[in-house]
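Throughout our pipeline, every protein is held as a single compact record rather than as scattered files. Nothing more is needed to write down the fold, since each code stands for a local backbone conformation. The record that follows is passed on verbatim for readers who wish to inspect the format.
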Amino acid sequence: MTTSGGWLARALRSGNFLIGAALSGTLALTALVSLFWTPKSATAISIPHRLTQPSGEFPLGTDHFGRDVLSMLMVGAQNSILVGVVAVGIGATLGIALGALASARRGWVEEVVMRLTDFSFAFPAILSAIMLTAILGPGTVNSIIAIGIFNIPLFARVTRGSANAIWAREFILAARAAGKGAFRITLEHVLPNIASVLIVQATIQFALAILAEAGLSYLGLGTQPPQPSWGRMLNEAQTMMFLAPRLAVFPGIAIALAVLGLNLLGDGLRDLFDPKLARKR
């Protein structure tokens, strides 16, 4: 068994993990700080200050309504984290339950669950999310539901595949011989042994959820005004590309760094949980 000291030593040697943790930590810290403080109000309109260049008063300048860009980016981080956490939570909770059920019961139960996931994969996730938000109406809650629903089949397939490998192990046979049922074996032996795979997958899906939310907001189907959103900031910057390109650059960089950080964090966690992968690189 790997000791906590050994795990920490490998974490400190992993460039992907350190960079990913730093970027993801910055995202989380920014969202946390914005709950209590921002340089200016993120929603206050000030026409006299519209399109102000970066300065001491406005570090990243203002947009065409005079709103402080830095404050909007900080508050927008809240929205990205909220959508990512809740959407991935919905997908992971239901998907892991379905995948574990399919693996434990096998037979027709597994076939039904897997065919349903195959059917859902026939529709691109982002297009399906657009369809759902178009039907249910725009808004943060509906974006979360849409993104969460289409995380379910992915988690179900990952859980089922990983759990099947565990069910073939000798200690599962020993648990069965001891009289444990499928439900108890799943909770006590299967899920703990695939937890690392699911954590890595959740980290990667978190990044994709942030990207999907930004895409929906860009199309006007996600977070609605006056709540700041990185995707909507990009949308509003379209008409200002030649006059003030920084209005598109700053939210674009925020999205890119958030997604990059979470992907690197997931990659680093995969190496830490399975050192053999790191040695192959």
